[in-house]
């Protein structure tokens, strides 16, 4: 029943497992298609089954009316209604309706199981090629192969009496044709046993639900035999894949197969998502050496008709000679004999009083007519419970108006009239299992028609055209022959009541023809082997076959499925015989293990499709840095490392014991008839994954190929060069997906871009991942990556790279209008790739529409709900933490798991102790070189480490040493390496440290003057000393970020006006502000490694090397740390680093996060330190507030006289980050303008270039101009140029001349 508790198998694979090429592609999964798949897989070929419907197993078929209604899809004259993978498909046409099934197993899921061979005289008709008559033995063997697998048998004599069966026998006797009554052979199990495919089936529970999907595992549909047999022999099955056309492959060397099959992936959730976004489903494609069309009479004809429109040459007979197989429906309504011919529906069979039985169990065979085309069979049937309520009223109306019954109301006795009325009322009051409906016999009649219907494409949908079909079947003759059967039980004969609902159109449940067998293309679509004619004579496509009901050239007069099966078996025999293949027909010896195929097909993609394999591996290496192993089958996965949901795969290479095995997804493990244990249920939840769909639209330029994505996008928009990408992403087991740091998922989908390919491209290999920075990359580097290999139908390949930056703190970007995806496309030719396109995607993308497409991949609602809940919760949490970053947990120095350093070879350092005129101790470190000397001055709360840190690959100290400069690093009183940093000092005091340091440099080098590089507070204190005359000997200067005019940002002005410094000093009694903070749980007692000397300079340690013990973490520290979470930050600059927060609070944002490496950012405690309150107050409340430099007495030092005296002959280079959040760029602009005013007006242009220059560095902030990951390329060259330019007048050049 629908609530069956057994764990169901899953044979179909996720589309991410689809390979680009197979030996054989089988379209459909009904009788013909499943036989082809089974037999060709048994021949050792790599088979792919593409089924347009869903995979459902017994226990999943709907039984109540509402659930059945939800599975109805209706093809009307102008529109399709319902979901395209609905189980019940109705084709409405003016003259002829058709009912077919849609699902893995095809119409075998819903047919009435009756296995009848056609009248032998059928084969004598001239429509059949002479090969059938010439080799009748082959035909007989083929039928027998089908019978051996399908195992039809009559209803057992020793089973419960079925009233509808016994009533039919009574009717046959009453009509004088008892000799024609037989129990029909039906494909139903009447005992618990393993079938020839090794699948365990149960005995029938006699529900009569066969035509709506039976849930008791008794029906021998192809899902029970041929399909699992194909899977067990290595076939790969993909559902929701609606094949639309086939074409002959273009003659290119890189095209792997002669046929290309285009299909639409009609996953219901994906289809609903695309429909909501008014986007059509773009076909995907794969190729094969052999293609077998087995999509049914309507489906295969539709595919060939559409293929013809797209250039495939085929016979003009495609779509013609369609037949409804002479189907005729009638009833004996409200007779005197109980029938119990209404199926049980969702009723419990154990509690059901009268067994219904399989839909058909008996028949009356009228096929002995002289003319074989006049023969027919009458079979009893069961009315689907879901339709019985609808039919009840129609029966009554039609019976009252019936002129066909010889026992009309006027002929009935009074007692019969009373009984008939009571029974009718009983059906209304007590339900369809009582009264008139319980006494109604169903007649299912298979006869002959003239097969003159024609299938046509209208609005790209298959339509049936058959004017006058009703008159072609001699219904009056059938009425006269069937009417006595109703009379025999005193029932009212009612001809097909469905004509009321179909506007008198004829309904068939056995559509056949449309691709009929013929001798040549003039009279058929395929030859006797099933090969499609090319449209000229008897020439055929060697690898294109049709094997299903479409091949019938005439009606059969019996249920057609056994004939379809026999002809398919015959075609497979001839196909394999022509190619020298061998089919093993031995039945399964062992029960099938749905965990893994017993006979997987060995497959090595590196040999089968080397180009695809090579580029998939390339993509793997570029996308997944964590994965060391990159060999193996990677189709649809990108890397051989299996996702944790992978259990087994029929595609594994059994020849290599240690080779990675490509795997298939089994959301559940089938265990025959045992209830799922709690452990199994838990395992199912763990294995359940989540999928969702994205539709990305945008523009791609093939003209602008630089990384200027904005320009490329604008050019593409102007040229209307569009790109559309439809992606479906699969996480694999949700638990493992959430554990993976990169959250990678598989991608499947299509890319449409006419600038690259006239036809849509398929994503051959793809991965989605959330990218976060490695230690060497920018600290804020976080993005969603899309890496894919695109395959064109012509065999050409492109590599697609998409990068969607994640902008922390941008609420609109996170929730309402996500950022665009930056796209780069590379064409792959002869193993080499070149850039061919740049652009942007995501013009109408939004978070909520993606969430709406979420779905689980388990058969269990509970498992799916659990997986979606976990995924949704994780996404929501991530969104909140990314776009509301103040909610993140703070990162402290103790939380940094790894510290990466870059080894440096430097000259032996020389250490010089420096004492200023006011008694402060500082330190100089020299790395001796031949040019210079150059003195480097750091800013506040840092140290000379900003110039020499080994946390970045390239620092300024080593950059200058590489140019042979004599480098001097000063750790003055504001250095975190100096103990005196904790002493209170006026801000001007730094000038005295510089004066003392420069004297030592001049003394040791013998130079008259030197060059200086000064940053931030080191720069302003140097300028103050030079303007005040206290600092001498500077011959050339590089000032970083600030000089004479300390103009601060608005944010810093707000903090300045809030009087925070007096609050810290007087109220909170703080003597310094420490930019470094620690976790409350920190157990470290010293910030210096026990193996390191705190007095040794420039030795990178794992923490600040001041030598001071880590002070106790106070309540104030915790309060400050948590309050600083909420300080507003520019977009892209949010982080959770507590040291970064404190530094920003104290000075302003010191760097653009995209300019510093993650390794540097994670170890800021080695770079940052504290600043004493007096110095900070002098800087903020003094110099910055007055926007000038002052001495200790508050005297303004920035005067024209001082400037002229100190800088008239000193070349100065100002370096300023364009995005500086401490001192605005106008600060150095005013300083350089003051110096320009010193120059003679007559020579001002030349002097601008030689004396006083200013460089604004785009994209940089403050300290990142020194410690930025790319500063050695973007900033250092300006510094070097200035130093080289002024070597002649400073340093050793001057000293040596003297």
UniProtKB/TrEMBL annotation:
Species name: Modicella reniformis
Bias (Acidic residues) ranges: 645-656
Residue intervals of the Glucose-methanol-choline oxidoreductase N-terminal domain: 93-322
GO biological process, one term: cholesterol metabolic process
Residue ranges with Basic and acidic residues bias: 676-687
Residue stretches making up the Glucose-methanol-choline oxidoreductase C-terminal domain: 503-568
InterPro entries: AB_hydrolase_1, AB_hydrolase_fold, Cholesterol_Oxidase, FAD-dep_OxRdtase_2_FAD-bd, FAD/NAD-bd_sf, GMC_OxRdtase_N, GMC_OxRtase_C
Comp. bias regions, Low complexity: 1078-1088, 1095-1106
The AB hydrolase-1 domain, residue ranges: 933-1268
The protein's name: Cholesterol oxidase
Cofactor: FAD
């Amino acid at each position: 029943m629908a609530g069956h508790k057994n764990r169901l198998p899953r044979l179909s694979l996720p589309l991410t497992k689809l390979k680009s090429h197979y030996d054989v592609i089988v379209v459909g999964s009904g009788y013909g298609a499943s036989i082809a798949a089974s037999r060709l897989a048994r021949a050792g070929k790599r088979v792919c089954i593409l089924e347009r419907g869903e995979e459902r197993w017994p226990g999943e078929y709907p039984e109540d009316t509402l659930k059945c209604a939800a599975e109805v899809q209706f093809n009307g004259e102008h529109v399709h209604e319902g979901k395209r993978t609905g189980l019940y498909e109705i084709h409405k046409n003016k003259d002829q309706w058709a009912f077919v099934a849609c699902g893995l197993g095809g119409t075998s899921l819903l047919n009435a199981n009756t296995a009848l061979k056609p009248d032998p005289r059928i084969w004598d008709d001239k429509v059949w090629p002479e090969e059938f008559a010439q080799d009748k033995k082959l035909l007989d063997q083929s039928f027998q192969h089908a019978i051996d697998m399908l195992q039809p048998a009559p209803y057992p004599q020793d089973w419960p009496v079925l009233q509808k069966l016994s009533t039919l026998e009574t009717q046959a006797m009453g009509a004088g044709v008892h000799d024609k009554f037989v129990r029909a052979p039906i494909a139903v199990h009447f005992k618990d046993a393993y079938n020839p495919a090794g699948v365990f089936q149960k005995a029938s529970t006699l529900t009569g639900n066969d035509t709506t999907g039976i849930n008791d595992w008794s029906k021998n549909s192809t899902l029970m035999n041929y399909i699992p047999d194909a899977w067990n022999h290595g076939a790969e099955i993909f559902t929701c894949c609606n094949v639309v056309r086939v074409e002959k492959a273009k003659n290119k060397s890189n095209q792997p197969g002669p046929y290309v099959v285009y299909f639409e992936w009609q996953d219901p959730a994906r289809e609903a998502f695309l429909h909501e976004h008014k986007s059509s489903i773009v076909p995907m494609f794969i190729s094969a050496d052999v293609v077998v069309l087995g999509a049914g009479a309507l489906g295969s004809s539709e595919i060939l008709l559409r293929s013809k429109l797209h250039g495939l040459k085929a016979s003009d007979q495609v779509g013609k000679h369609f037949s409804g197989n002479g189907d005729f429906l009638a009833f004996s309504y409200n007779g005197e004999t109980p029938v119990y011919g209404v199926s049980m529906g969702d009723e419990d069979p154990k509690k059901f009083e009268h067994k219904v039985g399989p839909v058909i169990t008996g028949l009356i065979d009228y096929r002995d007519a002289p003319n074989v085309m006049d023969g027919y069979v009458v079979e009893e049937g069961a009315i689907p419970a879901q339709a019985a309520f609808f039919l009840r009223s129609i029966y009554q109306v039609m019976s009252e108006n019936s002129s066909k019954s010889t026992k009309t109301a006027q002929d009935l006795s009074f007692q019969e009239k009373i009984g008939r009325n009571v029974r009718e009322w009983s059906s209304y009051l007590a339900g369809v299992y009582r009264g008139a409906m319980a006494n109604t016999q169903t007649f299912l009649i298979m006869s002959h028609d003239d097969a003159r219907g024609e299938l046509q494409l209208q609005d790209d949908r298959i339509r049936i055209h058959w004017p006058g079909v009703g008159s072609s079947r001699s219904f009056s003759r059938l009425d006269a022959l069937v009417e006595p059967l109703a009379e025999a039980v005193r029932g009212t004969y009612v001809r097909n009541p469905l004509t009321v609902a179909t506007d008198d159109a004829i309904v068939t449940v056995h559509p056949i023809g449309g691709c009929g067998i013929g001798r040549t293309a003039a009279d058929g679509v395929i030859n006797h082997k099933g090969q499609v004619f090319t449209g000229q004579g008897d020439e055929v496509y060697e690898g294109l076959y049709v094997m299903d009901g479409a091949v019938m050239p005439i009606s059969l007069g019996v249920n057609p499925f056994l004939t379809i099966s026999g002809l398919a078996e015959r075609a497979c025999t001839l196909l394999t015989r022509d190619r020298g293949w061998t089919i093993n027909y031995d039945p399964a010896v062992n029960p099938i293990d749905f965990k893994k195929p017993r006979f997987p097909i060995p497959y090595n993609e590196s040999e089968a499709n080397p180009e695809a394999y090579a580029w998939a591996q390339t993509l793997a290496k570029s996308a997944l840095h964590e994965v060391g192993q990159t060999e193996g089958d990677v189709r649809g996965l990108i890397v051989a490392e299996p996702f944790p949901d992978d259990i087994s795969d029929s595609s594994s290479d059994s020849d290599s014991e240690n080779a990675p095995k490509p795997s298939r997804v089994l959301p559940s493990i089938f265990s025959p008839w045992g209830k799922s244990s709690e452990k199994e249920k838990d395992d199912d939840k763990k294995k359940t994954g989540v999928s969702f769909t994205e539709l990305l639209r945008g523009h791609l330029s093939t003209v602008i190929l630089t990384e200027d994505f904005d320009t490329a996008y604008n050019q593409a928009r102007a040229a209307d060069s569009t790109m559309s990408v439809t992606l479906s992403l699969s996480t694999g087991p949700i638990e493992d997906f959430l554990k993976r740091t990169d959250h990678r998922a598989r991608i499947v989908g299509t890319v449409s871009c006419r600038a690259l390919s006239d036809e849509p491209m398929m994503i051959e290999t793809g991965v989605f991942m959330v990218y976060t920075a490695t230690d060497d990359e920018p600290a804020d580097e976080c993005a969603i990556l899309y890496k894919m290999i695109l395959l064109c139908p012509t065999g050409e390949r492109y590599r697609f790279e998409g990068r969607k930056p994640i902008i922390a703190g941008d609420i609109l970007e996170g929730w309402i209008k996500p950022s665009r995806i930056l796209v780069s496309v590379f064409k792959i030719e002869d193993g080499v790739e070149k850039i061919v396109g740049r652009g942007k995607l995501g013009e109408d993308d939004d978070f909520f529409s993606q969430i709406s497409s979420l779905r689980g991949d388990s058969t269990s609602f509970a498992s799916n709900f659990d997986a979606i809940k976990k995924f949704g919760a994780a996404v929501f949490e991530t969104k909140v933490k990314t776009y509301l970053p103040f909610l993140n947990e703070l990162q402290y120095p103790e939380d940094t798991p790894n510290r990466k350093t870059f080894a440096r070879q430097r000259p032996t350092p020389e250490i010089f102790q420096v004492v200023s005129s006011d008694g402060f101790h500082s330190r100089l470190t020299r790395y001796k070189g031949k040019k210079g000397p150059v003195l480097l001055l750091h800013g506040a709360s840092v140290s000379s480490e900003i110039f020499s840190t080994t946390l970045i690959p390239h620092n300024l100290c080593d950059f200058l040493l590489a140019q042979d400069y004599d480098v001097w690093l000063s750790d003055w009183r504001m250095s975190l390496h100096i103990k005196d940093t904790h002493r209170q000092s006026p801000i001007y005091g730094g000038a005295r440290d510089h004066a003392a340091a420069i004297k030592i440099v001049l003394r040791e080098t013998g130079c008259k003057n030197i060059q200086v590089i000064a940053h931030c507070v080191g720069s302003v204190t140097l300028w103050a000393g030079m303007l005040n005359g206290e600092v001498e000997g500077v011959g050339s200067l590089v000032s970083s970020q600030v000089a004479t005019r300390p103009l601060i940002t608005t944010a810093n002005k707000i903090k300045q006006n809030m009087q925070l410094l007096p609050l810290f000093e007087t109220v909170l009694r703080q003597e310094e502000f420490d930019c470094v903070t620690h976790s409350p749980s920190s157990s470290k007692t010293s910030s210096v490694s026990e193996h390191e000397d705190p007095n040794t300079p420039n030795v990178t340690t794992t923490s600040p090397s001041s030598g001071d013990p880590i002070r106790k973490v106070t309540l104030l520290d915790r309060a400050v740390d948590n309050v600083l979470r909420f300080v507003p930050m520019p977009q892209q600059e949010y982080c959770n680093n507590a040291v970064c927060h404190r530094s920003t609070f104290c000075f302003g944002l010191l760097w653009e996060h995209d300019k510093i490496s993650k390794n540097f950012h994670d170890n800021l405690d080695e770079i940052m330190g504290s600043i004493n309150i007096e110095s900070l107050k002098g800087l903020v409340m003094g110099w910055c507030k007055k926007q000038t430099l002052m001495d200790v007495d508050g005297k303004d030092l920035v005067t024209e006289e001082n400037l002229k005296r100190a800088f008239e002959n000193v070349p100065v280079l100002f370096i300023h980050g364009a995005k500086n959040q401490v001192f605005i760029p106008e600060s150095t602009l005013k300083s350089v303008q003051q110096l320009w005013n010193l120059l003679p007006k007559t020579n001002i242009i030349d002097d601008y270039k030689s004396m006083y220059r200013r460089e604004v560095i785009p994209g940089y902030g403050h300290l990142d101009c020194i410690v930025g990951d790319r500063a050695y390329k973007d900033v250092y060259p300006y510094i070097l140029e200035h130093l080289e330019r002024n070597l002649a007048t400073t340093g050793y050049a001057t000293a040596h001349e003297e």
